[in-house]
Amino acid sequence: MKIVLGSSEINLPILPGDVSDTIWSALRNGTYEAKEAYWVRKAVRTGDRVLELGTGLGIIATILATEIDVQVSAFDANPEIVRLAENVVKANGRHNISVAQGLMTAGSPRDFLFYLRKDFWMSSVFEDQGPYERIITIRSIDIDEFIVNARITLLIMDIEGGECELLQGAELPGVERVFLELHDHLYGLAGVRQITTAMAAKGFAYDPRGSSGACVLFSRNLDIREYEEEAYAVSA
């Protein structure tokens, strides 16, 4: 199967039985990560070293990898989804993406329970987010240590609420931009305030030129850029 997201045509070696009916329907009708795929292009720059948390099927990673001289390190805690993402990356000939199972947190590695759900995009470390099919134990990776070693400049994350605690605890050394999906239905506006306050303390500002609704870009480079009318289009 092939899908088109914006200007990107992506090969998807995915079968109906590989994902839930809900996710299969989203893939078929072109709504799967469509908004994220559009806005993440505002975040990536030539030469970026990207860390993506919660890669899912690897579609966003595949889009990011089309930028010149970009290297993407993509992680997901779900081992079955990592296998699917690896197949997607291979089917699209992206040799500048590495995909691995992993859960990143601020601080020293420790064990977490991870709850796998039928709709994999709902899987998380939080038991109370709905019915789950099984539980796995996964040892975390210190995100700041990884960022330093891999010289990460752009952090992408869609981790079902885990971003609230992570962004408060991590230092994000050397990271220039952070693009994430907020999950205010899980932590409310109080959680959004905690995230924005923590990011401001690290020198990041909310960047409206790469943000729309729950898809938010934080940038450390506060230089004035040329006005981009497309970035403010209501239709987007």
TrEMBL record:
<dbReference type="Pfam" id="PF05050">
    <property type="entry name" value="Methyltransf_21"/>
</dbReference>
<keyword id="KW-0808">Transferase</keyword>
<dbReference type="InterPro" id="IPR029063">
    <property type="entry name" value="SAM-dependent_MTases_sf"/>
</dbReference>
<dbReference type="GO" id="GO:0032259">
    <property type="term" value="P:methylation"/>
</dbReference>
<feature type="domain" description="Methyltransferase FkbM">
    <location>
        <begin position="112"/>
        <end position="203"/>
    </location>
</feature>
<dbReference type="GO" id="GO:0008168">
    <property type="term" value="F:methyltransferase activity"/>
</dbReference>
<protein>
    <submittedName>
        <fullName>FkbM family methyltransferase</fullName>
    </submittedName>
</protein>
<dbReference type="InterPro" id="IPR006342">
    <property type="entry name" value="FkbM_mtfrase"/>
</dbReference>
<dbReference type="Pfam" id="PF01135">
    <property type="entry name" value="PCMT"/>
</dbReference>
<keyword id="KW-0489">Methyltransferase</keyword>
